[in-house]
Amino acid sequence: MLDEKTKELIAIGASVTAHCQPCTTFHVKKAKELGVTDDMIKEAIEVGQTVERGAGDVMNDFLTKKMGVSATNTACCCTDKGCSCSC
User: Fold this and answer.
1) How far apart are CA 62 and CA 71, in angstroms?
2) pLDDT tens digits for 64-78?
3) What gap in Å lies between CA 54 and CA 20, rounded to an integer?
4) How buried is residue 28: exposed, middle or buried, by Cβ count under 10 Å (0-12/13-18/19+)?
C-alpha cells in the first residue's frame, strides 16, 4: 500500500503529463502539507515532463508513419481568441 506522500508525488507527475494546471496546483499544495520536500516535488514534475515528452514523440511518429500526417503540418484546432496553446 502506498503512503499519502507517494500518492501525491504520483499525482503531481500525472497532472503535469495531463497538462492539468488546477490538478498540479492542488497536488503540490497537498504534498507540501504532508511534508514533501521541494526537491521531491521538483523531481516528480520532471518525471511527468519526461513521460509527456516520450508520449509526444511516439504520437508524432505514429501520426507521421501510420496516419500520413506530418506533426508540423497539423492545423490549429483552436477557434477561441482565448486559446493559450502554442499552435
Assistant:
1) 9
2) 898 888 766 445 555
3) 18
4) buried
What radius of gyration do the chain's Cα atoms show?
16
Burial class (CB in 10 A: 0-12, 13-18, 19+), 6: middle
Residue with cell 500520413: 68
Asked if residues 48 and 17 have their Cβ atoms less than 8 Å apart, the reply is yes
User: What kind of fold does domain 4-65 have according to CATH?
Assistant: AhpD-like (1.20.1290)
Q: What is the 3-state secondary structure (H, E, C) of 22-48?
A: HHHHHHHHHHHHCCCCHHHHHHHHHHH
pLDDT tens figures, 4-23: 999 999 999 999 999 999 99
